[in-house]
Design a protein that fits this description.
six-stranded mixed beta sheet; disordered C terminus; six-stranded antiparallel beta sheet; binds beta-D-glucopyranose; alpha/beta; single chain
Length: about 850
């Protein structure tokens, strides 16, 4: 069908609808579907989270999905073709879940290392983020699934995300935060964009004419579907006028009859409504969603090719940060001769954190954790493996262990007092599998509409502890909740502040201890009261933690002392790195720093594996032999770790973010999180390495850094018009990989520089494979925007006065060759978007 015919067809279809029907199309029908209009042959269309896998319509307990590496892990591969393969996989996964839109990728930038969703985003650098995002979108959309790139714009941390006003100057927006979105529109034809929760320079992002209508649609020519973040639309007329086509989720809070009335009163026009309805239909048409009929069942795909792709991608994103020599050879790859016993220590060894928390969570089709995978691999060499957790790292207490409980029952009462009245008859009873429960709609009547009447709920089980002592019980909940043991009140969370659980909408967990006898049965009840609300989302988590009898760090240290080699697997988890809140600092949670220091003192050969989605501090760095940073590498984590540790896969990940020595050194430190409802981006264009390299501060590890087992060096580099050609030499006997990076630095005219002009910026990179003892020449295209700046006066990209230096290196701090140049030699067109 020609595009003209397509346009005509959609015009006819939208004009055949009544105004009411057009308005109905402008909001979801539920959490994950658009509205169907049967009369006109318009089916509902399903959308699904998210960047690490296509989850489908259930947060918990739905069909399993392939869990791919998180955003930082994908960016750490510096490998767009590999990411494009992952995009294809996600496209197939989305189709298996009956979804035509995947709510991904997340391309906000790492403004500070403690942003709660940094793991989901890719990098501190717009060029790297853009190239990874373009590849992701291309792969995904080639499978007939729209990428919904998010969150546009200024949602770079989670602090007060639902209300904060991000104040970002125009040049910083253009040169940093908008770049990945612009590239996705212009180079990948991204079909959908999600607005962010926050305000941007005043108006809500979802009401911003300046961002959506002027820049996204006007300047960049975006002609796809714009949807709000979930409950992130705040207006009836303004959002439609600005260009938010779809309010999500449904049923509508702000549109429907309210929008019809606004049109009647002339606050929004019928043309605004028609345009938005047309965008919804046009997206469906392009995707072929009209032929789908109603969205089909949600299925699990689990094929060997997917597992091996996730394993390969996860391994290739891992960054080797340290690899000291033990005797005359490096600690890694592991040499197993003479090794009889290996201690595998740490909270993430058996857990294997494959993903971050929040809406990016999926329930994986397969899970491989480091303890199991290493035990199998080392077992083949006859090596004994010992294991200790070392220390707990939970942020919220772990959910109740089903093995200590009778099946859970939840009774729901329409009456908000019902749960407290023992004689009241429940309106509904359910049997959840877990004591972490979320409701996406009214639990008693899912069709009740958008104003959710109040309800109360009573969670019950018989809890039989296996240990005597002071048990901790915790409750976090979107509503007031109280936990009772044998009718005695133990935890009352009603006084807790909101934030810290359930996407920031729930109360911080309240924990209290209670002394219990082992093998005695206790009646455990949690009663919660949810008042009438217009936000259907609700949830409760009930956790318990047993008394600690011996010091777990002592136990782990003893195992390390008795081992020839210790592998410590530390990190964060999906509660520390999640949605709705940031981390407080960069420290590893719990006593992990102490654990590593003591283990390293007890065992001469210690390898640390850090399993976190964003940077953590490493006070023990100098005391350990090797450090491998895995990020959240997806469901095949354990096998991918083995591949790198044993040297079957060359370490080839490079840092997509600078690792600061201290949080106080970081660019946004003085301005984050914000004050009085405003996040002032006063560091301007100086985020990440742009800051460290401009102000001359030493990071712990620079942007772009990563070691290999092979030594691949840059021997020479030449400029070829708008590209750079580099000769690489592999000086070792192993096949190697190098990620060559080019930074542009203005070397003259210092007096013309703005206060926040970065000393240098990434303008190109290439990942090269170089066989053992071989020489290779590779070519990198330079970003056509290199050596340009956004001019506020011209409202356009303009060349910056030179001269420049092109710095060719292997990190922002390891520069091998400097090439002098002028702007004219390098860039051709000021209007061209960034290079893909
Ligand atoms: C997140 C989005 C997500 C949506 C649907 C929101 O809380 O910010 O990224 O796609 O929920 O789960």
């Amino acid at each position: 069908m020609s595009s003209q015919r397509t346009d005509h067809h959609i015009d006819e279809l939208v004009d055949s609808l009544t105004l009411e029907e057009q308005v109905a199309l402008l909001a979801g029908t539920d959490f994950w579907h658009t509205v169907a209009i049967e009369r006109a042959g318009i089916p509902a269309m399903r959308v699904s989270d998210g960047p690490a896998g296509a989850r489908g319509t259930l947060f918990e307990g739905g069909p399993a999905s392939v869990n791919v590496p998180c955003g930082t892990s994908l960016a750490a591969t510096w490998d767009p073709p590999l990411v494009e393969e992952v995009g294809h996989l996600l496209g197939k996964e989305s189709r298996a879940k009956g979804a035509r839109v995947l709510l991904a990728p997340t391309v906000n930038l790492h403004r500070t290392p403690i942003g709660g969703r940094n793991f989901e985003c890719m990098s501190e650098d717009p060029h790297l983020t853009a190239r990874i995002a373009v590849a992701y979108v291309r792969g995904l959309q080639a499978e007939g699934v729209a990428a919904c790139i998010k969150h546009f714009i200024g949602n770079d941390t989670e602090f007060e995300r639902n209300t904060i006003d991000s104040h970002i100057d125009e040049r910083t927006l253009r040169e940093l935060y908008m770049v990945p979105f612009e590239a996705a529109v212009k180079q990948a034809g991204v079909m959908s964009v999600m607005t962010s929760y926050n305000r941007i320079n005043g108006p809500w992002a979802a009401d911003s004419v300046a961002m959506i209508d002027d820049v996204l649609r006007g300047e960049w020519g975006f002609d796809g579907l714009v949807m709000s973040d979930w409950f992130g639309l705040h207006s009836t007329a303004e959002g439609v006028i600005a260009g938010v086509d779809l309010e999500m989720p449904g049923p509508t809070l702000h549109r429907g009859p309210k929008l019809l009335e606004a049109v009647e009163q002339g606050k929004a026009s019928a043309a605004d409504v028609r345009r938005a309805a047309r965008n919804v239909l046009s997206a469906m048409h392009r995707l072929g969603a009209f032929d789908d009929g109603e969205p089909g069942p949600e299925l699990t795909r689990d094929v060997p090719e997917d597992r091996s792709l996730v394993r390969r991608a996860g391994a290739q994103g891992m960054v080797l940060l340290r690899n000291e020599r033990a005797g005359d050879v490096p600690v890694l790859p592991l040499r197993l001769d003479g090794v009889n016993r290996v201690a595998i220590i740490g909270p993430n060894a058996a857990r294997g954190q494959t993903e971050g928390g929040g809406s990016a969570h999926v329930h994986a089709t397969h899970l491989s954790n480091p303890l199991e995978a290493l035990s199998v691999a080392l077992g083949k060499h006859g090596i004994e493996v010992t294991h200790a957790v070392g220390c707990p790292t939970h942020k919220r207490l772990p959910a109740l262990q089903p093995a200590l409980c009778t099946p859970f029952v939840v009774d729901f009462f329409r009456d908000v007092e019902g749960a407290d009245a023992s004689e009241a008859q429940p309106d509904l009873s359910t049997t959840p599998e877990s004591s972490r429960i979320m409701w996406m709609s009214d639990p008693i009547d899912p069709d009740v509409g958008s104003a959710i009447p109040g309800f109360s709920a009573r969670f019950r089980t018989t809890f039989t502890p296996d240990v005597t002592g002071a048990w901790e019980f915790g409750v976090s909940s979107v509503a007031d909740a109280k936990l009772y043991l044998d009718d005695g009140l133990v935890v009352d969370n009603s006084t807790q502040p909101t934030g810290g659980s359930f996407f920031g909408l729930g109360k911080t967990e309240k924990v209290e201890a209670s002394y219990l006898q082992a093998n005695r049965a206790y009646q455990l009840e949690v009663r919660l009261r949810r008042p009438t609300t217009d936000n259907a989302f609700s949830g409760v988590q009930i956790g318990a933690y047993p008394p600690t009898l011996a010091d777990p760090v002592d136990e782990a240290t003893e195992l390390a002392a008795a081992a020839d080699l210790t592998i410590v697997v530390v990190g964060t988890n999906d509660d520390w790195e999640s949605e709705g809140y940031d981390r407080d600092d960069m420290a590893l949670p719990g006593r992990q720093d102490e654990l590593i220091a003591r283990v390293a003192a007890a065992c001469a050969h210690t390898v640390v594996i850090v399993n976190a989605g964003s940077p953590v501090s490493m006070p023990w760095l100098d005391d350990v032999g090797a450090v491998l940073y895995t990020w959240f590498p997806g469901q095949e984590m354990g096998d991918a770790v083995v591949d790198v540790l044993l040297g079957d896969v060359e370490p080839q990940g490079r840092l997509p973010v600078s690792f600061p020595a201290r949080l106080e050194d970081t660019p946004a430190f003085e301005h984050h999180p914000g004050r009085n409802g405003v996040a002032n981006y006063l560091e301007g264009r100086l985020i990440g390495y742009r800051w460290y390299d401009t102000v001359g501060r030493q990071p712990l590890f620079p942007f772009g850094f990563g070691l290999g087992y092979a030594t691949v060096v840059i021997a020479a580099a030449r400029q070829l018009d708008d590209a750079v050609e580099v000769d690489l030499v592999n000086e070792s006997d192993r096949d190697g990989v190098q990620v060559v990076q080019v930074y542009a630095a203005r070397t003259g005219a210092a007096e013309h520089r703005g206060d926040d002009e970065p000393a240098q910026q990434l303008v190109g990179f290439v990942k090269a494979r170089v066989p053992a003892r071989a020489t290779t020449t590779v070519t990198m295209q330079l970003d056509p925007r290199a050596m340009h700046t956004w001019s506020i006066a011209d409202h356009d990209w303009v060349p910056v006065e030179g001269p420049f230096e092109l710095r060719v290196g292997t990190s922002s701090r390891d520069i091998a060759v400097r090439i002098g140049t002028t702007a004219g030699q390098v860039t051709k067109s000021s209007a061209a978007p960034n290079h893909s």
